[in-house]
Amino acid sequence: MNHPIRRRDFIKSSLRAASLLALGTWCGLVTKAQGKKATSRKVIILGFDGMDPRLTDMWMKEGKLPAFQRLTVQGGFHSLGTSIPPQSPVAWSNFITGMNPGGHGIFDFIHRDPKTYIPTFSASATEDASKTIRVGNFVLPIKGGTVKNLRQGKAFWQILEEHDIPATIFKIPANYPPVSSKERTLSGMGTPDLLGSYGRFRYYTTEPKEIQEDIGGGEVHLVYVIGNRVEAKLPGPINTFKKDRPEAEIDFKVFIDPQNPVAKVVIQDQEFILGEKEWSGWKRVRFPLIPSQSVTGICMFYLKEVRPNFKLYVSPINVDPGNPALPISTPESYAKELEKKFGPFFTKGLPADTSALENEILDEEEFLEQDDFVLEESRAMLDYELGRFDSGLFFYYISSTDQRQHMFWRMLDEKHPAYDPALAKKFGGVIENTYREADRILDHVLGKIDKDTVVLVMSDHGFNPFNRGFNLNTWLRQNGYLRLRNEFKQEDLEIGFPSTDWSKTKAFGLGLNGLYINQKGREAEGIVQPGPDKENLVREIARKLEEFTDPKTGEKVVLKAYVARDVYSGAHVDEAPDIVLGFNRGYRISFKSPLGRVPKDVLEDNRAKWSGDHMGAAEIMPGILLANQPFKAESPALCDLTATIMDVFGIEKPEGMIGKTIFE
Predict the structure, then answer these.
(1) Domain residue spans in the chain?
(2) pLDDT band, residue 23 (cuts 50/70/90)
(3) What is the CA radius of gyration of the chain?
(4) Tens-place pLDDT, residues 445-499
(5) Beta strands in 306-447 (DSSP E)
(6) d(CA 171, CA 187)
């Protein structure tokens, strides 16, 4: 999982454009029961997002991961080649389809519209909207429309379905909305909250100093305590039924005990009491749109402080799995089945609220408490699915290994700009403990299988420190490839290149790893001729990027500048960035650069809590691969696992699938 940009502007707009206005519209998903063919061999795949082979190997050697060590003895342990670039939606799409980005068409979290130079969300889009409006540079649908998964190619479970082999796919990333299937699938990373964003929390406080206008991933509301009572509103999705498209809102009240650190929350027909520093558990809320239409979601309340200041956090409003307003499973009944058995559960693709931690709304301990809820829910559902798994394939995904490394890497590295000795003393073991939890999950699974079950353990990429941020567009400007209309302007922090002089701009950066040539006939105001002129320019820029060193450290910033046509194959190569940046260890794109901003400095220290990342060159960012039977693949990669699934079930590898089985 990846990476804020920061999430504030782009995700707030483009994810809404991709999903919010499709409330209740289901993309024609198939709802028949899954296939029932019994298979002589079964496959369980455990996907631990972001598990790093260096850390895994180190802690195995120290005896801290006994189940991983046992699996290594049984079958083997190897680093697993990741995608170019090693971003989660790209990497998981490689695994899902068995193709590289040139085949499946997902190159980054962010793509661009060549007609407008505006960033777009890569994974999904709203289609067939009968009415749209423009908000800033974004076009949003306001009536009708369906959500479409933009990944190309068949998912491996769709191929299994064609052969009547049952599969259960639990929260695999890059599958929102879920592709049409009879198999049981629950969408994961990429699934928005009810507002259509990656997750927007609400925070209510009486402390004016905490009010922030520009906050990523949430909103802070100033409230007042009058007579031991707080009155506030919980904003919900945009009400598309009304002409001015206001946010639907719910009134709620909080009654504060005059003596004890306790409060009662009253919202709609619910009343519940919270002590200070207590979580509410899931609460179902209903947002009325018009008298005959409403939409429900689920959220958690956390009473952070009663006095001297009142502070209440409300989690992002997740899609209600018991009454989903957006497509989150196939068949539709699968999410409802899980909700009926377990109650409400996290449906937002990135469940832990990293934005709340980044903005110090939640502290480290509170963030971990919230993420523990994610793990508890997932473990319970794992047991449930293992208990009825008797044929076919079961894929199970864990997000905590990724999100905790993003936020707690600074605790491991004394050289990190955000390192805090006091916090490191208290939370320095978080990442190790997360790996040990992964080991306990594996041990539990190994205790449930029979001799005919193949177990594969994988991660989509590894992890690196994120110490310094690279402003690509600033570098392009300083090297004469990007020009602003006002060259005396020190920096341009607006989104979408509004100040760029396209008549003099040869290249621009957009997304977390992408660089595009301003090509004539492709970009709206392109000036670089396709053919030799473009090819020479691409090679020139790639060479200069690989030669550029950080004046502070003397290290290369970009380890590999991949030319797309050299590393991609398939029908969608022409849609790729012309150059894909593979950063050196310790570096990645800055928070400002991915949406077209041009800050003053080329490099800047990263003092954010988001301190670990995986935007590096694929060669230094491999994931992990373990199996419970011997495999001798010398350089296995994600696409090879897809081919391995085909091989285990005796299915001929489809055309376009580029991997090969890891088993002899």
Answers:
(1) 8-197+321-462+620-648, 201-314, 467-613
(2) very low
(3) 24
(4) 999 999 999 999 999 999 999 999 999 999 999 999 999 999 888 888 888 899 9
(5) 311-314, 318-319, 329-330, 393-398
(6) 5
Structure tokens that stand for 204 in this block = 């209510």
Per-residue pLDDT at 293 exceeds 90: no
Spacing of C-alpha 61 from chain mean position = 31
CA distance 383 to 516: 46
Contact 545, 553 (CB under 8 A): no
**Which residue type does 547 have?**
E
Helix (H, G, I), strand (E, B) or coil at 305: strand
Options 3.40.190.170, 3.40.720.10, 3.40.120.10, 1.10.600.10; CATH of 8-197+321-462+620-648 = 3.40.720.10
Query: How, if at all, do strands 184-187 and 167-172 pair?
Result: parallel
For 102-156, give the secondary structure using H, E and C.
HHHCCCCCEEEECCCCEEEECCEEEEEEEEEEEECCEEEEEEEEEEEECCCCCCH
CA distance 521 to 595: 23
Q: Is 642 exposed, middle or buried (CB count within 10 Å of its CB: 0-12, 13-18, 19+)?
A: buried
Cβ of 84: how many Cβ atoms within 10 Å? 26
Nearest to 68 by CA among 48, 43, 92, 83: 48
What is each CA distance from 292 to 20, 246, 288, 289, in whole angstroms? 19, 17, 8, 8
Q: Please state, as a whole number, how many other Cβ atoms lie within 10 Å of the Cβ of residue 270.
A: 12
User: For 92-106, what is each residue's pLDDT tens digit?
Assistant: 999 999 999 999 999
Q: Which amino acid is at 495?
A: I
Q: How many CB atoms lie within 10 A of CB 249?
A: 14
Helix locations, 548-607, DSSP H: 564-567
The pairing of strands 247-256 and 262-267 is antiparallel
Residue 478: alpha-carbon gap to chain centroid: 32
Q: Would you call 661 helix, strand, or coil by DSSP?
A: coil
Q: Do residues 369 and 430 touch, judged by C-beta distance below 8 A?
A: no
Query: Residue for token digits 């307003």?
Result: 325
DSSP 417-434: TT--HHHHHHHTTHHHHH
Please confirm whether the linkage preceding 166 is cis (ω < 30° from 0).
no
246: preceding bond cis by omega (within 30 degrees): no
Phi, psi of 477 (to 5 degrees): -65, -45
Q: Which residue has tokens 């293992």?
A: 386
* CB neighbour class for 444 (10 Å; exposed up to 12, middle 13-18, buried from 19): middle
